[in-house]
TrEMBL record:
It comes from the Archaea. Its main location: cytoplasm. The keyword Signal does not apply. This is Exosome complex component Csl4. InterPro entries: Csl4, Exosome_Csl4_arc, NA-bd_OB-fold. The gene is csl4. Keywords: Cytoplasm, Exosome, Metal-binding, Zinc.
């Protein structure tokens, strides 16, 4: 197995247990060593320990802050947001936050690439935990997954104005009336 230096997300496989033992921010699932956090895998070949170096300590995001960004990854029970704005101010710190998405197997809350707004709940071991379960939080901007056209809100769904495709989302009450479309051209 090739040892990756790419950033790992929670649940990512970083090594196999025949080759390494679990270090900081990792767990083993009986076969593989997986990451518990967002961070960079590090491998000590002498002690054969795999660990994850947590993300840069986020000095600029704190509990209660409202962040806006794009959905970077979807996992079974959570998703990661690449933070672009903190309390309305642009940030280039490369911060990510993780939202729990309980019940998301049945319900589509967000898709990768959606622009969402979330509230920071806590910072634990360098991981920023956030939520979108308040009316003003959730998806601000998205597009039709089938054809890429503009969508309109229909209660808890979105509907494509072009092809008519309907899909679920956890929409923000501010969906459709903000200027977040500009993010899309970045
Ligand atoms: Zn469409």
């Amino acid at each position: 197995m090739t040892l990756s230096q790419k950033p790992a997300l929670p649940g990512d496989k970083i090594a196999i247990i025949e080759e390494f033992e679990t270090g900081e921010n990792t767990f083993d699932d009986g076969q593989s060593i997986r990451s518990l956090v967002v961070g960079t895998p590090e491998f000590d070949k002498t002690s054969r320990i795999a660990r994850i170096s947590g993300m840069r300590r986020p000095a600029v995001a704190k509990s209660g802050d409202v962040v806006t960004g794009s959905v970077a990854a979807l996992m079974n029970n959570m998703f990661a947001i690449n933070i672009l704005y903190i309390n309305g101010k642009p940030t280039h710190a490369g911060l990510e936050c993780i939202c729990q998405a309980k019940g998301a197997k049945k319900r589509i809350l967000v898709r990768v690439g959606d622009i969402v707004t979330a509230k920071i709940l806590s910072l634990l071991n360098g991981v920023i935990h956030a939520t979108i379960s308040e009316p003003e939080l959730g998806v601000l901007f998205t597009q039709c997954i089938k054809c890429g056209a503009k969508v309109i809100a229909m209660s808890n769904n979105i509907k494509c104005i072009d092809c008519g495709y309907i899909e679920e989302r956890k929409l923000s009450t501010r969906f459709g009336n903000s200027d977040f479309i500009k993010f899309n051209s970045n």
